[in-house]
Design brief:
0% strand; single chain; 245 residues; mainly alpha
Length: 245
């Protein structure tokens, strides 16, 4: 599924669950539903959740800026090695070609996303925020380096989400949050199981990708199905509102 579909399905389902379990529909409900229904895709640097943490245009700007200063630094070092301008330019040219193969925008973006989340955890720690709020940032900071749809898309990770959100839900006096967050996370995984790629749902015990469908993400048929699902869920939500409110 596309990221925006995961987000829409998550928010609508979060509202439905709140109605069914007689829970208040508050901003925390909407935000947590949106975040945890897209969070598994943090293992993909161009996903919606990654874009919220770090805008792609900004990371591209930083990438070009870093390469620019590397060009200058390498040229200055090469001038020290050889006073010949042409030799220095030759060394700089081939060194940059080598570095650009290693320091790609994709890898640098992953590092920046990880660094941003880890920096937030440090700031929260220095601000003496309860450790329960810091642990999630530390755990999710490693997601960008995971193989797509493996550990992040497993039942094991759903359990971890519940365990890290449970103390937070108690602290903010909204115990429904732990269940809501883990359910939204699981919902994302279930939705992805209906795509061609599938998910390694039993990871780390099994790396086999489990697929229950043949939907191609981004394809015309897939987009129609996704929009249809959102429409059906929206109609069900209206029905539940009329029934419970």
């Amino acid at each position: 599924m596309r990221g925006k579909t995961h987000c829409a399905v998550g928010i609508i389902t979060g509202i439905q669950l709140s109605l069914i379990f007689s829970q208040p529909i508050i901003p925390t409900t909407i935000v947590s539903s949106a975040v945890f229904s897209t969070l598994p895709d943090l293992d993909k640097s161009n996903s919606i959740i990654s874009g919220i943490i770090l805008k792609k245009n900004f990371s591209k700007f930083l990438y070009k800026l870093i390469l620019f200063f590397l060009d200058i630094a390498i040229f200055l070092v090469s001038i020290k090695i050889s006073s010949s301008f042409f030799i220095s330019a030759f060394i700089t040219f081939f060194t940059i070609i080598f570095l650009e193969k290693k320091i790609t925008h994709y890898n640098m973006r992953k590092a920046l996303i990880t660094g941003t989340l880890f920096l937030l955890s440090i700031i929260l720690f220095l601000a003496k925020v309860n450790l329960s709020f810091i642990i999630p940032f530390i755990i999710f900071s490693i997601f960008p380096w995971l193989r797509h749809r493996n550990f992040s898309h497993s039942f094991f990770m759903v359990i971890i989400v519940y365990l890290i959100m449970k103390p937070i839900s108690i602290l903010i006096d909204y115990e429904f949050l732990a269940f809501l967050s883990s359910f939204m996370y699981l919902l994302h995984i279930i939705c992805d199981m209906f795509t061609r790629q599938g998910v390694a749902i039993f990871y780390p015990f099994s790396k086999n990708m489990i697929s229950l469908g043949y939907i191609k993400v981004g394809g015309k048929f897939s987009n129609i199905i996704e929009n249809l699902i959102i429409l059906i869920l929206f109609i069900v939500t209206i029905h539940l509102m009329l029934k419970f409110l």
